[in-house]
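Exercise: predict the fold of this chain.
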Amino acid sequence: MRNTTVRAVNRLTTRWARQAVTGEKGTVLTAAGVWPLLAFLADGAGGPARAELAEALGIPAGSATAAARELLTGLAGVRGLQAATGLWTRADLPLYESWLTGLPDGARSALTGDEDTDRKALDGWAADRTGGLIEQMPAPLNEDTRLVLASALALRLKWIQPFRTGCADLSEGPWAGRSALALYRSTSLLDRVRVAHTPTGPVTLLEVVGDGGVDVHLVLGEPDTDPGEVLAAGAAAVTRAVPSTGASLLPEGNPGPGLRIGTVRSTDREPRLHVKTVAFDVGADHDLLAHARLFGLHTATDTRSGHFPGIGPEPLAIGSARQSAMARFHAEGFEATAVTAVALAAGCALPRYRYRVRQAEVTFHRPFGFLAVHRTSRLVLAAGWVAEPVTLTP
């Protein structure tokens, strides 16, 4: 994957997070699922719509299709990640072969015009491409629907080191008084936790390593910091746009949110990092047209004229653009999936504590963000906010 494309997708992730993550409820989003669709649309767009899409993409519209195909090829090579693109069109909708050849092979299918039949086909595609985690295509179907362009991303990974589970009686912030499904682990790798100082304040980041090429980073900001800004700051840190410092070099005390570093007596010379967090399960349905300017779709939604002369001779406009997404973080691993659709309308013996070692303890017991990041390219595959932990009932 080209660095320019990765940076463009990550910029869209950051801008979207700032607008969509309010902290009122948990959410998850994946710009990596939206960006290729915008690129294919930009290739067929004209006039102001083409300029808006190019601005949203962060690259020229003329090179968008090639960049999207290269991105999708790169995603297909990520272990544990499935990526797919689908196109459904009405039989009587003429399309230019020059636009169709830019799409991935085998993407095109037909819309019959029968709403029940087409709904079953699109929902089946979404469920099949996400292993049943998302059962419905987030696109309305009606007599005006002429074309549906969709993407699906499904990520599954297992932790290199699983967590231990338990019960945490939470005592701080909005989760105070709750009993949550707690996740614990310890490691000698202090720098799995880092602190970045950003314009909106410090953020603490915990890297949880997956068994493939993708890791999940938990992001904790100060209690009063805007959640969207916390997640955006975390994205800047994990993509190395801003520097961060590992716990091995941080001062003792509380150098970052939720983080405490000190010196303790130990039976061996190894430093220790103790992690306390919670399991989470979040889902979201996003109306991309609620942020139409962000995605470069403002002009293209005007149905009084056509905006995609490069797709076909029939005037076309954006009728809907939505994403359904979910993410689960548990003791053994992580799952995240998203379907995006754009419709064109019309663990003894007593120990001997002989050594003094550095110890860090990081705790995520109040709302925090998360980012799933491809380790090699630093592409953010999914981002979200945990407003509620998985709780335990008496």
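Check your answer against the key: The two ends are 48 Å apart (CA to CA).
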